[in-house]
Amino acid sequence: RLDGDRLTDGHIIFRASPDKVGTGHPGGRIVFLPDETLLLTVGDGYDFRDQAQNLNSPLGKIMRLDREGRPPENNPFASRPEAIPAIFSYGHRNPQGLLVDPRDGTAWEHEHGPKGGDEINRLQSGLNYGWPRTSFGVDYSGELISKEQTAKDIEPPVLVWVPSIAPSGFALYLGDAFPEWKGDFFVGGLAEKSLRRVRMRGGEVVLQEILLRELKARVRDVRNGPDGFLYLVTDAPEGSVLRLRPRTQ
After folding, report:
1. CB 135: neighbour CB atoms within 10 A?
2. Which of 226, 168, 228 is nearest to 193 (CA)?
3. Long-range contacts of range 185-188, CB-CB < 8 Å, 24 or more positions apart?
4. Amino acid 19: pLDDT
5. Which residue from 178, 176, 175, 157 is spatially nearest to 167, judged by alpha carbons?
6. Contact, 133 vs 91, CB < 8 A?
7. Can you tell me the distance from the alpha carbon of 95 to that of 61, in angstroms, rounded to the nearest whole number?
């Protein structure tokens, strides 16, 4: 609960179990759907990537919960005894971008690939997004993770980045301060040290632009402000909150 400028009365409504060793690939993004349920990303844990295909493991999944942490009865695997009922979609690696388009309720997610193969996905209930059965990247050693980039029972990504930009943070710009950007996605780049603008039309990417490379800063998050400007968080010991506004303002 937000009390002035303090968070108070916190309690746990969901915990991935069993506990895993290490902090790699935690996921951890949350967004609310129009029906007031929420989506929560859970990464594959890095050393446990095969669990992303296991419906009895929370790793490598998008969860759908109500505000008390309970799985809704209409979740896609709620009636299957071998599956965790909170699972909404599976086959994810390390999702660090999540948003809902308020215009139509579509949920979008982006995730880190290995060496290459970062993705933007349109989330749909019950679908398998492939990891590690399919991948557009290779392991950090250079070895193949999978011989397949796509498969008939796998939902393909809408956009793939090779080489990786290491995406983090995700915003859909619907403000009025930048009319030429209205309806575009913005993605923070950690490895690329950039802000990516991505324009989609009809579910396909029609334009990409790389912004703010001159800052040489890892962009951890990007958000819409109530004033119509974009706000960024840079990831560094001297990290900053930055505001983007038109040059005329």
Report:
1. 24
2. 168
3. 185/108, 185/120, 186/222, 186/230, 187/97, 187/110, 187/120, 187/222, 188/218, 188/219, 188/220, 188/221, 188/222, 188/232, 188/233
4. 80
5. 157
6. yes
7. 9
Instruction: Kindly give the pairing relationship between strand 2-3 and strand 6-7.
Output: antiparallel
Provide the 10 A C-beta neighbour count for residue 136.
21
Which one-letter amino acid corresponds to residue 196? Answer: R
| Averaged confidence pLDDT in the chain | 95
The backbone torsions φ and ψ at residue 154, rounded to the nearest 5 degrees and listed phi first, read -110, 135
Cα 185 from Cα 196, distance rounded (Å): 8
Q: From 103, 90, 4, 114, select the one nearest 39 (Cα to Cα).
A: 90
| Residues assigned a catalytic role | 25
CA distance 113 to 117: 5
- 225's torsion region: left (phi>0), alpha (psi -120 to 50) or beta? beta
Low pLDDT (below 50) residues in the chain: none
- For the record, the structure tokens of 159 come out as 């956009």
CA 8/CA 19 separation, integer angstroms:
26
pLDDT of residue 249: 58
pTM above 0.90, yes or no: yes
Angle at 102 between CA 100 and CA 105, to 5 degrees: 60
